[in-house]
Amino acid sequence: MRKFLVVFLILLVVVVVGADIALRGFAERTVAERVAQQMQTSEQPDVAIGGWAFLPQAVGGTYSEITITAGSATVRGVTLEQIEATATEVDAPLSDLVNEPSVVAGQVEGSFVVPYSYFNPHLPEGVTITTENGEPRITGELAIPELGVSTSISAAGEFEVDGGTVTVTPVDIEVSGAPDGVSDMVGDMLTFSVEAPELPFGLTVTEMENVSSGVRITGTGQDVPLMGSEAA
Prior knowledge:
Layout: H1 2-39, E1 46-49, H2 55-60, E2 62-75, E3 78-91, H3 94-98, E4 103-115, E5 127-132, E6 135-144, E7 149-162, E8 165-176, H4 183-190, E9 192-195, E10 204-210, E11 214-227
Antiparallel strand pairs: 1-2, 2-3, 3-4, 4-11, 5-6, 6-7, 7-8, 8-9, 10-11
């Protein structure tokens, strides 16, 4: 009898663990599919539901942590890259995941790369932002109407964020084929401010850094709809 109980308990553990793994995988795929639709990702994002066991979280309808990563997504017409988001205190009854998905996170922290090409339309014609040794570089042929000349320019780019506004300022400006003393004029022509693109999930911008492919913007949000009609 004791041997039978041991075998039974082992089988029960195997069944419970198998069910936990299967349901976790189902929930992760469901969230990934919905997020892909809402954010117009280039491919289905990777979704991981944290916690040592899934079933207790599913029964309670609250998940300790959900991470979402995607290569790129289109949010309100702007392509964002290298998307990473971590949602905690996620309220998502299992029945909602199966039927009418409505998932709300108590807290979300995420970061997204805005390609340098996003900023190019705000520069004078013939000038673009590229990368050199992993750093942003403003280069091109710049027309200076006040002097009636066109000159090749090259400058490093500094990006600063204040609230939701990004300011781009050229530094270490190199000018060729133009009279001396035009660096200040070129600097004024290349400096601009632009609203940062609206971040996925309606996150608020908190910080920013330059990376090789663009500007990584980090944001946070509270009571964030991840899935459902109110999700961004």
